[in-house]
Amino acid sequence: MELAKFERANERAREIKASLPRVAAARYDRRLGRVVISLSSKVDVMFAPRDAEGLEKATPAEMETIEISPSGFGIHFPKLNADLYLPALLEGFLGSRKWMAARLGATGGRSRSAAKRKAAKKNGRLGGRPKKRVA
Question: Does residue 91 or residue 67 have the better pLDDT?
């Protein structure tokens, strides 16, 4: 039973490896302020460190060393002890689900839509946000 699971896992890994590009090179471009990842498919992907979990507050000096995982599906920033997984990165995920949700929530909280202004005005007429009660 365990051997069958192991073989299926190996087969899935071979399929992923065959179907997805891998990291060929990775560097931090100080001039652009972006991490640049060159893929085996000859495509370059770049992003701002502030948009990736674990890199949000990184300095250029902390970004200068980037290691590629043996599988070619990950990059590691040793000075920050941060990792990014290439397949997730290619799907637009620059962090864990929880981290991404928090970022989206913060963006939504800054929204200044007409509906939000109207709701805030209505709530203000009702006395605003209720005070927290101390038990």
Answer: 67
